[in-house]
Amino acid sequence: MKKIIHVHSDRKFISDSEKFNGEFFINELLILETKNSFNEAYHNKALFFEPNPVNLNNILAIVNSADILVLYNLDFFKSQIVNCVDKKVKIIWRFFGTELYSRKLHLYLSTKSKSYFIPRLFKDQVKRILPFLFQNEISFYRAIKRSDAFVSVFKDEYKYLIKHWNHLPIFIRLSQDGLRLYSKEINFELEYPKSNTVVIGNSRSQYNNHLDILESIETCDLDQKINIKLLFNYGPNNKYTQKVREKADCIANVTLIDSFITSNEFIDFYGPVAAFVNNSFRQMALGNIFMALHRGVKVYLNKKNPTYPWLKNEGLYIYEIKDLKNDLETGHIHLTKSEIEHNLKCLKKLKEDYTKTDFQLQVLELLNN
What we know:
Blueprint: E1 2-8, E2 25-31, E3 46-48, H1 56-63, E4 68-72, H2 76-84, E5 90-94, H3 98-101, H4 111-114, H5 118-129, H6 135-146, E6 149-152, H7 155-164, E7 170-173, H8 188-191, E8 197-200, H9 210-219, E9 227-231, H10 239-249, E10 254-257, H11 263-269, E11 275-278, H12 286-294, E12 298-301, H13 307-313, E13 319-320, H14 324-330, H15 337-353, H16 356-368
Helix pairs in contact: 2-6, 9-10
């Protein structure tokens, strides 16, 4: 069996490592943070290090024993690990999104959102023109060249990304098979018909382009039976998020959810929800999208988001942001029972057509090459 070491820095995604569980690999966890009450479940299952240069040599001594090193979100410190690790170790970059999308932020913000990030956008432009002046950029792009594979959920996104970053490593598709979060489907006896609740966004992230949706709600003749919940419970606070809060406070039907939702609570969060709206121009919130679809929720996505054509091509009922205003006014925010059943069949096919074993065999092939 081949040894894989998984390097994480966000506990929400540690379960991603389970994709490698099986007969082919021995899996070990390395978590880049100190032990605390939030990661207590992993205290006896993982090694913990603070992500600072003092610990780099100790981390390298461990990861150099692996056949494969999987890094979840290729940030600056993980880039340093990749650039120093033994050449015999295969590197898999489990792509999260922010590593690349944040480097061309101007492409993924609406005009309204951009107005709150002018200094950041200017700095990003300088980085794109003169990347050699920034150590983190040098380290990051070196790490990409050192990486052997790029793992993400669907190839359409990879095809899009490689047009903007043409030096990406080979693509390996991540299986949707066996994810605990997606295992609970709608209970029609308890959860149908749905309530009149619409959920907007997945976090405080500016990529949600909340202001455009809130303005659409503010200017439409909203069916008063509809309740809007704005998921706003993690991410940085800044001038943009302050403006979103102010705008939401002015709309009677909108409630901000700013308390953290545990993974167990998240599994049931979408049970009573009618619709989920994500106005991102980039791939994000796949956990929310898949959970919503499994619970019979009507999903609205921006057509610029590569997730939209992917899911449409897989046969699912997915709706455009441009349809939202009319649906809010007419109350057409629910899927029919037959539409829900159709989406569930498509999701099942998506998992069965490419299983966890299929994914692991691709990883093994990487080693053989």
